[in-house]
Specification:
CATH architecture of the largest domain: 3-Layer(aba) Sandwich
Oligomer: single chain
Order of helices and strands: EEEHEEEHHEHHEEEEHEHEHE
Strand order of the largest sheet: 8-9-7-6-12-13-14
Structural class: alpha/beta
Number of strands: 14
Strand content: 25-35%
Radius of gyration: 20 Å
CATH superfamily of the largest domain: 5'-nuclease
Number of domains: 2
Helix content: 10-25%
CATH topology of the largest domain: Rossmann fold
Shape: globular
Largest sheet: 7 strands, mixed
């Protein structure tokens, strides 16, 4: 649910309905819906848009805290029109930045939903899939890199990318392994279309890696909500998790990132990389 806010620029909405502690990650507001949505940073909390107040906004910008886990206070106000506005301020007693695990120097598993990545690249005008993957992974130490692509998506890549993938492209010292997923024709109320089961190919591998524990971190290229539970299990979140969690990063274009996956990554062991930052 997206709502408008004045970000504390003028008078604060009233009355105050609720105040609570929270840990949130703030990310740039890439798609303002009105002149009021002008906050330098923005975060989603249970599907609700949250804006930092002036002091917190300055701290996020000056200390480069975008994407960090922040211990803050949430306030929800009710406007004269009856809508609710959520704002965030510094916690009065706790340190602002919550220390979190990162992937610096760790061996990581990289799993790529090629269909989702291709859709993200189209939106952003990125041409080469191999180059996009390489640029994202430059700071990391991949132990394995698995790319899952439908046969119908493979033919849409640049010829140079297809050649590189078939000849065993390497990202740094690690080979990028291509898995071609079978495409089949399905019929529904909207007619006949081509479909591949990339989710069904990736989820079992993600489960195996979660149990294997030979990799210290996960980088998952996708925005699909179907991976939310799998990522949470990796990070040790939820009742189904019975092992210590490990850090994970999800890579996606902002419009392609589902609310469910965005919420799953709003955790000290989670982080997001937006492909918009490559443009």
């Amino acid at each position: 649910m997206a709502i408008s806010a004045n970000n504390g620029a003028n008078s604060m909405p009233a009355p105050l309905l609720e105040r609570q502690e929270a840990v949130l990650k703030f990310f740039p507001n890439r798609k303002p819906s009105s002149r009021l949505d002008s906050s330098p940073s923005i975060s989603g909390h249970e599907g609700i848009v949250v804006f930092p107040d002036k002091e917190l906004g300055r701290a996020i910008a000056s200390q480069c805290l975008v994407g960090k886990s922040l211990q803050i206070m949430l306030q929800v106000y009710k406007t004269a029109r009856g809508t609710h506005v959520w704002t965030a301020s510094k916690h009065p007693r706790k340190n602002l930045v919550l220390q979190t695990a990162d992937l610096g120097g760790k061996e990581v598993a990289v799993i790529i939903d090629g269909q989702n990545l291709l859709g993200s690249m189209r939106r952003l005008g990125l041409k080469s899939m191999v180059d996009t993957i390489s640029r994202v992974l430059r700071p990391f130490r991949p132990k394995l890199i698995n790319l899952y692509l439908g046969a119908n998506d493979l033919i849409q890549l640049l010829p140079a990318d297809r050649t590189a993938l078939h000849s065993g492209a390497r990202i740094g010292e690690t080979q990028l392994t291509l898995f071609t997923v079978e495409t089949r024709r399905v019929a529904d109320d909207n007619g006949t279309r081509m479909k591949n089961n990339i989710d069904g190919s990736i989820l079992p591998i993600l489960g195996e890696l979660t149990n294997d524990r030979s990799c210290e971190g996960l980088i998952l290229f996708t925005g699909d909500k179907d991976f939310s539970t799998g990522v949470e299990l990796w990070m040790g979140i939820g009742e189904q998790s019975h092992r210590p969690g490990r850090p994970a990063i999800v890579v996606s274009a902002d419009p392609m990132l589902s609310t469910e996956l965005r919420e799953a990554m709003n955790h000290p062991r989670g982080n997001l990389i937006f492909l918009e930052d490559l443009c």
